[in-house]
Amino acid sequence: MSSSAGLVVFTLIVSWVFAGAAAAAALESAGRPRRSLLRALGDGSDDLPDVALELNGSDFDAVLRQSPARFAVVEFFAHWCPACRNYKPHYEKVARLFNGANAVHPGIVVMTRVDCAHKMNSKLCDRFSVDHYPRLLWGHPRKFASGAWSPKQEQNDILPIDDGQTAEHEKFENENTLPHNASDPEQVARAIYDIEEATAGAFDIILEHKMIKPDTEAPFIKFLQLISAHHPSKRCRRGSAEILVNFDDVWPLDSLSTSAKDMDSPHDMSMLKNFQICGKEVPRGYWIFCHGSKKDTRGFSCGLWVLIHSLSVRVRDEESYLAFNTICDFIHNFFVCEECRRHFYKMCSSVTTPFNTTRDLALWFWSTHNRVNDRLMKTEKALGTGDPKFPKMRWPPKQLCPSCYRSPGRINNGTLLVDWNKDEVFSFLVRYYGKTLVSSYKDENRSSGGNGVSVSDDVATSTNAVAVPVGAALGIALASCAFGALACFWRAQQKNRKQRKRTDLHP
Ligand SMILES: Cc1cc2nc3c(=O)[nH]c(=O)nc-3n(C[C@H](O)[C@H](O)[C@H](O)COP(=O)(O)OP(=O)(O)OC[C@H]3O[C@@H](n4cnc5c(N)ncnc54)[C@H](O)[C@@H]3O)c2cc1C
Question: Which residues form the Thioredoxin domain (predicted)?
């Protein structure tokens, strides 16, 4: 942003703050206050300590009730959310105007944040209907104390700050030549544990945020079907199949008879919470392959990518389009990083011709991930928010897959152009996310074979029946591990169930 534009925005913010409620109301009536205002003061990438107050479920009400400030801004975020990480320097830059020892305008606005990824803050984040990250709200501090916010409420003294964008995106211009931090291909063998962690984490988030509603039930079930057939971890295949099989009992309400309100009933949530999607030892609470060298980098979103790629190489040709839609819908409905899910879904929506092969599917996710990498490369560099040991790059680097490159990469106008050999890329993906990924997997939970016995052969291809007590037909579908067959069976079962319900209601 140019300095004059920055000055205009700065003046806007300061006049908004100084003119108080009238100016704020005028700003609001002209449209919702925009996050770009909070971004406009520079990138804040210097290494100053954080001044926005980090609040939690136990001190939130008390701190805000006692605050002498005229306004409070609360950023609800998750420490694992990459878009929140990129947003933080902008937020801190503004916070420095109002909070901390060197504040230029102390006491007028109290800038705070709440990490919704911590269990102790779940109820607080629920109270403010946080359904994506980051969610920014502002209002009088005392309105927050014991107050609540919901997008459905028309009259509320607490207002959202939202333009849906959390970072400026500019075209990627790579100043380096080919990336040089190639990793050892065998390292991905440790990622299997992170995929389990990400799967359990995603399930936890879905339950914590009560995200299963009449309109999201189908995408959730489809994803369970996909992972119960093709998850690279046997533990997660077993766990997801168990949830699937018992879903009707633990979640007896269906879209025919259920209102969203009923779906939020704590009783139902607690029943689903009894299930551990990847067994009782997951989540473990740490990352291995996806472990960042800097606080809050990598982790969950890295694990999610690796899960997506590992699924993409495991589905069969005939399942590829169903798997594509299932993954896209899952990210769209359940990935609470707002920017990530929106961008990703846009890319999904641009696909108009159905995939016919595993190759097309795997290459689509690979190139889409590279497009995300391209976009983030510049942002992370500008804001200093990336992980210095794991810079974003066009992947795989040449050191990891020399044959994937037809010729050395070329720099054109600062942009790295690679002439990919897509057959080689696909073979590499199949090896990397297929056999290598599960080559040292251990399933301590295994019913036979004892503790810590390697079952790599067992998980290299997901063609084994899952040991859960299921009805014969579902058992066959699971045993064949055909995701398509499973989806088909599920639809038939649902139809029968609805039919039975109708008959019960109108005998
Ligand atoms: C669906 C989705 C959409 C996202 N969208 C955004 C967004 O819009 N904005 C944002 O700030 N963050 C977004 N993220 C998060 C972001 O992409 C990274 O996950 C995060 O910054 C952590 O990066 P990382 O260094 O761990 O590597 P990641 O990008 O998470 O990659 C994980 C691992 O996958 C491998 N890999 C890298 N590139 C490829 C590829 N092209 N094909 C196959 N494997 C590859 C590498 O081994 C890498 O270590 C998104 C995440 C997901 C899952």
Answer: 26-197
* Pocket lining: 387 vs ligand 1, CB cutoff 6 Å: yes
**How does pLDDT run across 312-357, given as a tens digit for each residue?**
999 999 999 999 999 999 999 999 999 999 999 999 999 999 999 9
Tokens 């004892």 belong to residue = 450
Q: Which residues contact 178 (CB under 8 A, 6 or more apart)?
A: 397, 398, 408, 409, 416
- Residue 435: DSSP 8-state: I
| 249 and 387 both lie in a single domain | yes
Bond preceding residue 134 cis, omega within 30 of 0: yes
Joined tokens for residue 253: 């309400």
- Examine the domain organization and report whether 314 and 418 are in the same domain: yes
- pLDDT band at residue 271, thresholds of 50, 70 and 90? confident
Catalytic site includes residue 340: no
Q: Looking at the structure, do residues 366 and 448 belong to the same domain, yes or no?
A: yes
Question: In this structure, what CATH number is given to the domain that contains residue 330?
Answer: 1.20.120.310
Contacts of the segment 139-143: beta carbons below 8 A, 24+ positions apart: 139/71, 139/72, 140/70, 140/71, 140/72, 141/64, 141/65, 141/67, 141/69, 141/71, 141/72, 141/110, 142/64, 142/65, 142/67
111 and 199 assigned to the same domain:
no
Q: How far is the CA of 302 from the centre of ligand 1 (A)?
A: 5
Same structural domain, 213 and 361: yes
Burial class (CB in 10 A: 0-12, 13-18, 19+), 351: middle
Q: What is the C-alpha R_g of the chain?
A: 24
291 CB near ligand 1 (under 6 Å) = no
Could you give the dihedral angle defined by the CA atoms of residues 321, 207, 87 and 48, in that order, rounded to the nearest 10 degrees? -140
Query: Taking residues 102-122, what's their average pLDDT?
Result: 88
Total count of domains within the chain:
2
Asked if the structure places residue 197 within a domain, the reply is: yes
Is 329 in the same domain as 423?
A: yes
Q: Is the pLDDT of residue 265 over 90?
A: no
Q: Would residue 9 count as lying in a domain?
A: yes
Q: Ligand 1 pocket, 345 CB below 6 A? A: no
Ramachandran bin of 50, using left for φ above 0, alpha for ψ from -120 to 50, beta for the remaining angles:
beta
Nearest C-alpha to atom 27 of ligand 1 is from which residue? Answer: 302
Structural domain for 121, as ranges: 3-161
Active site residue 84: yes
